[in-house]
Amino acid sequence: MFMMSYQLPEFVIERREDKCIKCRVCERQCAFEGHEYDEEFDRMFSYEDKCVGCQRCVVFCPTNALIIKPHPGDYRPNANWTREKLQDLKKQAETGGVILTGSGNDKGYRIYWDHLVLNASQVTNPSIDPLREPMELRTFLGRKPDSLQLEIDGDDVQITTELTPNVAIETPIVFTAMSYGAISYQAFKSLAMAASEFGTLFNTGEGGLPTELRKYGKNAIVQCASGRFGVDPEYLNCSAAVEIKIGQGAKPGIGGHLPGEKVSVWISETRMIPEGTDALSPAPQHDIYSIEDLSMLIYALKEATNYEKPVSVKIAAVHNAPAIASGMVRAGADIIALDGLRGGTGAAPKIIRDNVGIPIEMALASVDRRLREEGIRNKASILVAGGFRNSGDVLKAIALGADAVYIGSPALIAMGCTMCQKCYTGKCNWGICTQDPYLTKRLNPEIASQRLVNLLRGWSHEIKEMLGGMGINAIESVRGNRDHLRGVGLEDWELDVLGVKGAGEV
Amino acid sequence: MRRSRRILEPEKDMQACGLFGVMDRSGRRFDGNIAIDAMKNMKVRGNGLGGGFSVYGPYPHYKDQYAIHVMYEGGNTDAKNRVEDFLHKNFEVVNEEEVPTNSDANVINPPLVWRYFVNPEKKGEEKKISDDDYVVAKVMDINTKIDDAFVFSSGKDMAVFKGVGFPEDIAEFFMLDELYKGYIWTGHSRFPTNTPGWWGGAHPFCILDWTVVHNGEISSYGTNRRYLEMYGYYCTLFTDTEVIAYAVDLLMRRQKLPIEVVSRIFAPPMWYLIEHMDERRKQLYTTLRRVYGPLLVNGPFTFIVAHHGEMFGLTDRIRLRPITAGEKADFIFMSSEEASIRAVSPDLDRIWTPHGGEPIIGRLWEDEKKKKKEQLILEQTFR
Amino acid sequence: MVSTSGAIKDMFLGEVRKIDELFRFIKIDGELAEIDATELKHKELNDLMRECIFKGAEKFVLKNVYGHRYIGTRLNISNPKRVQIDIYGTAGNDLGAFLNGHKIVVHGNAQDGVGNTMDDGEIIIEGRAGDVVAMSMRGGKIFIRDNVGYRTAIHMKEFENKVPVLVVGGTAQDFFGEYMAGGRVILLGLNLKENEAHKAHYIGTGMHGGIIYIRGKVEDYQLGREVGVLEPEKEDWKLIEENVRRFSDCFGFNSDDILSDKFIKLIPVSRRPYGKIYAY
Fold this sequence. Notes:
Chain B has helices at 33-41, 77-90, 131-145, 167-174, 176-179, 221-229, 240-254, 259-266, 271-275, 279-292, 338-344, 365-370, 373-382, and strands spanning 15-24, 30-31, 51-56, 66-72, 91-98, 112-120, 149-153, 158-163, 181-182, 184-192, 205-207, 210-216, 301-307, 310-315, 324-328, 331-335, 350-352, 360-363. Chain B is α+β, with helices and mostly antiparallel strands. Chain B has a 7-stranded antiparallel sheet, covered by helices on one side. Chain B has a 5-stranded antiparallel sheet with strand order 11-12-13-14-18. A 4-stranded antiparallel sheet of chain B has the order 5-6-4-7, covered by helices on one side. Chain B is globular and about 60 Å long. Chain B starts with 14 loop residues before the first strand and ends with a helix. Chain C starts with 25 loop residues before the first strand and ends with a strand. At the A-C interface, helix 3, strand 5, helix 5, helix 6 and helix 7 of A face helix 1 and strand 13 of C. Strand 5 (98-101) of chain A pairs parallel with strand 13 (278-279) of chain C.
């Protein structure tokens, strides 16, 4: 039986007919079929119910004839029953399904970065000018010993402490896990190229690393997640580090289903699953049901890589993250990766994305504190992810205690993403979150990787400027240096958790 | 700057581990080496932040007295004096002595440890309650009212030995290989995810002669705890293990249910399996779930519970944590790994891994023989 | 220089001895290296085996193995010689995890995680194995004489000609073939009594690729919702026969007897078992 949809369109498509030359670019650019040329009438028609607001047609319209904006039509104003809630509910009444979404939590939870301010030197110590004087951002990720033992052997000084492997990065910014499958081959390759060029890392996510891209392995954190896609001995050994993915900020505690339409023949090869099937990532890793099992997998991976790679463990930021993190370090993790409430995703149930987990700022502050209290902070690096928007957020995170920051959405935005949140449809007009060859070829890795390198360069430079302003010329001197942070507009308990003073408190 | 903090309930202790239990069902007593060697074999399951053992039958000369074992943190003699005053006021103390320890053992900050063999001296109203309940109440008094003192073992003719270190270190510290013999030994190696350091926080957990060693994290902790509170159990240690100990005490000691039934309360079959049972069993299992739903222990767990005459092991119903059982003549073993059983008894008569939620049970042969018919039918129905 | 003792006691790496101190545990006879594992820690045993391969060992005999983990894992060396490892005792967890092409024979039982994410090679177990056997296995073969535990062959995979195979002689516990995305699993039930059903429930739950063959009784309600039951066809019988013969050779069964019985074939009913639960 036909059931009519009661949804309101989300966007208005305004076509300025005086500018439109009917070149049909908009029609070709929109995979959601929002525009159509009608030969009979010789004019362009638009379908607003199909528009996702990605702005691809607007950017590509040669005469700037298009304006896309949120649909002003709304139901009776109601603080409780918002337009979004009504729309979601109607969609479920029409389908009986779990509502999917993409990218990160867009709800109005407090963004603590916007309530933290950084310090600068005035009079009592000098600021430093990074354009002319050295300013060091190099960061080592991995376990550090408590002390170094030196032995004098003839004229030679030898380090006798056994060192565990570390990875050096030239800026404390790393591309977060985005799998080949969730994103296109072109987007994936662009991240690899940019990381390699800039001297930082990208993260393969859980979809494996296609053989021809293994030359970028030394800039790759390769993931071993619950689906174990593409995990073979060579994959593990070509990497800079291995990451066990336990959870993701956008969907703590649940697995993933890469929809069958995204599983192309190439994805099928890398993941070793039949073409067109859903790629199921189980919710847990089925060899990890407990902390000593995590330890078992950490050491299995160390065995498989001959103890030559740091092993990272990534969890979603949840209520008891500090205790979990402590256990992870004791279980042998060299890097703790925390992904917060605002972390992005290619696809997640909206109810989970918007309601589960805690903000990364709180998780980071409490984990860093716990590990310091237990005297084990140097046993692992902390990588944080989930909602970093600019270099200011990055530096604030480092001052709170992070070693480096994972960025996902900023990298996608640099490549063209406009946060339309339709990643799960596989129809990304920007060629990023899709496997449709017609769409993916829109993204040229040579150009996209340059956009990414530019982003890293700009942010790194800004971090240097801010460090210089504080009178600090090495990033390690601001790491965990909460004296350089002050809170604005925060409650006492929030300041306590963050471990920072309020602005004006000395 | 210090700000006043709201008082929050302490964080729940989370941990995972290696477990082992061995019993000679003929009741013959043997030394601690089997349990120690088995735990040593599973060293990688712990991380050196806690280890412990329980032994049943170590004090044949004081079989009828409650053996109260007390830790004094930092060797606090004031605490010791207060505890001893308290004990002498409420009990007849038949013997008291320092628990012998080996100062060469590789352990961290050991407390001063004493034990007292006591008979209850109930007065007035107290005479109405059982000896067991009297002892529980007095132990709770010491543990909540006297700082730096902690009663960690309180049953008759049994003892718990535990602390911070690998189990082998704890065994060395208390010299378990030489000084004690028992017919049941359980062992535990701890892998906590929270702050290390407190000897009392190690396993086994003990109430009267019931001991629990446990591996896993109980996701239903909050539900189970609040249900038990209605029956007067207050979880003060905030560990999953404490919840299990109290639940076992409630169901087995107070409500007299056998483990065959209790295991179906903790780890009931899925509804879909119940639907495929015959009508009588379907009704029994459905009722059990309806009544005892709040004691369903959800999330990954394995535990081994012991008390005089009986030891049993159980996992959660979808077997998220391991257990393996072995038999060799009168001996029954249960462990997180087969290898640790093989390490101490290479030629087993039988080795098996039960389905999730199916208990492994070891009982004294003589107790089995004495069982009433009703008891056997009950056990059989829920087996 | 003063060294502060770390706050962490390391149960894996603590007190691990240097390789030079370990050679006394080996007897070398040409290409055969015999190692007594009694006093060796997990990492020490694997260190030794790796070293032996570099020195030309092609066959290992490991005596007194009691729970040593990751045997075979560290032997994934580029261009390795394929070696055979004979294990006496009880192999520890993650036996042959990430294995790439060696052959392991366990003369005894194995524990959890046999062949975890195994890439290639052969594992033969003359006994039983624990939980999550062949998890995410990508290639190679595993033969187990007796029973297996929970979640066997979970998320096994395949691509084109790389198709892993697991044969289990006994029965299995719950969630057998959960999430299977590929591979061939044969469950023989040789130790079941007359008319006794297999122990596993939720067989093939979430299965979306690969094939399970089962000999012996299985009730309908023991099967996951995502599987369909078929009769094996000619191609299937070819595969069953080939692997049952190999299984029988390994453990001394009569393959004709086994093959004369009825098998059922389980395949996923949908390649997208969860395609309909979402609202787009």
